[in-house]
Every structure is written in C-alpha cells, then in structure tokens.
Amino acid sequence: xxxxxxxxxxAMALILAGTALTGATGQAVAQDITLGALRLTSHSxxxxxxxxxxxxxxGLNVELAFFESxxxxxxxxxxxxxxxxxxxxxxxxxxxxxxxxxxxxGGALAEDPDVQGHVILASNxxxxxxxxxxxxxxxxxxxxxxxxxxxxxxxxxxxxxxxxDIADVQMKPLQKVGAIIGALSSGQVDGWAIQPxxxxxxxxEGAAHKIGDLSDYAPDYQVTAVFTSTGTAEGxxxxxxxxxxxxxxxxxxYNAAFVDGTADEAEVTELTEIVHQYVSTDVxxxxxxxxxxxxxxxxxxxxxxxxxxxxxQLDWMQDEGLVSGDITLEMLVDPSYxxxx
Length: 341
Prior knowledge:
The chain is of the alpha+beta class and 341 residues long.
C-alpha cells in the first residue's frame, strides 16, 4: 500500500471514541473513510465524486489509498486499513469472502457490446511472428498480475472461445500493470488484454498490435466491483449507502461525458482535467483527453451488479482449483445495496 492522499475538499473530522461529534454550529462533522483506488481511468468516478464534493455532500471525509494490484487492495479492506475498495474480482477476494472478511456491495466497470471494451494485444515481435488473432495465442506467453486475477480470467475466456487449452499458454505473473506494459512493449510477453484507454495508446504509439476484442468472448463480464468488510456492510449501513450514492453520482457524470456523449464540451473538459490529476500524470493533456474520449468503458449506472457474471467467475475459479469449492455467491455478495441481475 502506498501513502494516503487526502481530498482537497475534506475538512478535519472530530472523533471521540470512534464516534463523530457535532461541531460548534450544531452540524454533524464529516465521517472519515478511507477508499482504495488504482491510477486507472476505470476509477474516474472516484476522482470525480471526490473533487466535485459528492462525498462531502453525503457527510463523508474521504482519503484515498493508492494500490498497484487488486489483491493488495482486497487485503487492505479485510485487514481494516480501508473502509471501501473498487477493483477487479479475483481469487484472493473470493477467498477472503469465504473467511467472512469482505463483501461485494456493488458493480463498477463492465463489458458492454455497444461500447469499446478490453482490447487483446500482441507484442510487436509476436505479431511479426504470426500472432495476428487471439486463436494464435496458444503456445505463447500472456501477461497477468497474479494467478486468479482478472487478466487470468480474461485469458480463460479467450481460450475457451477459441478452443485451445489455457494450459498451452505460458502465463507470466508480473504483479503490476506497469510491469506488464513494459514486458509487452519490449517483447518479453507475447499477449495481454487491457482497458482501451491503455491498449489504444500502446497501439498508436507503436508499442503493440491489437488482435481482438474481449467482448467477443465475455460480452457480459463484470470486470470490477465495489466491496467492503463484512463488518462495515452489516454494521455501517447508513454510511455505506451514503458512500454508494456519492460514488454513483460520479459514475453518472463519467458515463455522460465519456461513454454516452450527452455532456457538453465544457463538462467533458472539466472532468478530463479532474481525472488527469490522478491518472497518467506523465501523459500530456491532449493525449490524455484522447484516451478518455476514445478509450472509456462503461461503468454500471447506480453501481448495479451482475451477479450472473460473478457466479460465472466463481465457477471458473473453482473448476481451476484457484479457490475452494465451498465458496458460494452468498458468501461473496451482499445484494441488499444495489440492483443485481
């Protein structure tokens, strides 16, 4: 876990014995919460909600804790270092749910056949050697963070769709997205699947070739979810509902600006600038605006959750022996907070 980054808008909360007090004006002091985040465009609603004061409006004083992997964030929530997290479904998260430590309470990033989703890439060396479509990933190497990660699951969907055994692909666990980017760009791994905001940039910069779309293999994939500790889900309902309302407001702004195209130009510019404070800060403004305009995936309105996709992911991980066969969807999900399907 890296250092906490406090919101610009946050006021200091007064805490006594873990309970928020009221200030001299009689108004309730904001409740402190810590939220895990990744420096990816898929976390844009978090930054929008933060900078536009949506959390503050709900009486929440939010601090961000930045991570470089989904697994570490899940451990942070389970261990009490974080109140909430937004990241991909992983075997690690499922194992923590079996222990009664965490609950998924909402959905976030999702594949939508009508919107550009994850792109399947080949390194330049692999492409020149004949890897020009996903079926040709058999016998090659593929970048993942860890076994049981979203990247591992995406590879499984490609393998199943193309009729080859996933065991025929050499997975290279590189722990961090940045490390996979470096390995793909230098030809140390042959293939990868990643959000279009990153994938399209790699292609346009000549660092990789696009060879397919994940939506052809997993059109209803619930990529990321919102989760919290079981104690918070069960014992802090008012706070959790306030958190989800604020984040949902950020989702609505994000989708309007970058997915549905219903926001005006000034709104798009403002939101792009907000996100760029946190994501790809080394990329120039024009390039980042292009990434947001052309590479933003849909995030579920109202943070609705595809439990059918989660069940498919759980079934696969159990079939692969990555998680216990005793884990159930009920252990993983608290369906009482958002719409599910």
